Amino acid sequence: MKRIRIKQVDAFTTVPFGGNPAGVVTDATDLAEGEMQAIAREMNLSETAFVAPSEEADFRVRFFTPRKEIDLAGHPTIATMHALVEEGRIPLQDGVTTVTQELNVGVLPVEIYSSGGRVKQIVMTQKRPEFLTTYSHREWARALGIPEAAMETGYPVQTVSTGTPQLMALVRDLRALQNLKPDLNYIAELTERGDFFSVHVFCLGGFSPQADVHARHFAPTAGVIEDPVTGSASGGMGAYLVRYGLVDKLKLVAEQGHIVGRPGTVQIEVILEGEEIASVKVGGQAITIMEGELFF
Length: 296
Fold this sequence. Notes:
CATH architecture of the largest domain: Roll
Radius of gyration: 18 Å
Number of strands: 18
Strand content: 35-45%
Distance between the termini: 6 Å
Number of domains: 2
Order of helices and strands: EEHEEEHEEEEHEEHHEEEHEEEE
Number of helices: 6
CATH class of the largest domain: Alpha Beta
CATH superfamily of the largest domain: Diaminopimelate Epimerase, Chain A, domain 1
CATH topology of the largest domain: Diaminopimelate Epimerase, Chain A, domain 1
């Protein structure tokens, strides 16, 4: 019988039961891929992360939803680094400690900002954004259960990938976002036909005056009805907002999860090389709320 230690960490929050919960197995050295998938299904969270040794980076990290593996994920990265710091596997220096994680999309850095041994912010770098297929506003208004007039039709419904391809859909305001009545079966059908993994719907502004944008996220084909706070898609969203001139700054504050009772905050920074977007950084905090063992 195997005994595997696992934590549940709430990411993009400092308050228990806020943000987005992730499972983290900090030593998955002896786990087969099928066992990782089974554990993720058992945890039934948006994602569970599995950490193993790497010959190319400080850690090898894989992410699984209840149904499938995902190449890059935001909130489990924040949760994983938080857990590894807690276990003393990332020695902190005051200021910035940089570690690398080997993902399915390559090796990417993570910066951990700390003071006096306490983590203040964990920041992941995502890949250079790719702007892919555009889709019909009418079709997506139907899928999201809102009038087409509630969408910002002057901006594309478009797949953007900073490591995971996700559909970006801009709606007019917070009321439109609150009024979404997503047809999950139809969204799943469109996902299977499209070039994206999940759907990120957002508006400018938010509940807090500090918020630049508020979002909701749906991934029915991955077994996730609504993701509370989505780090990977926040990166794609930041790139989208800058590319289409919807914001006049490169550092953004995103809200997500408030509408489903798990409020979270994501810090986004879009990095330019000349006039081109080179990469996106996504940051936040985390708190461990549970740890224990799995027997199988």
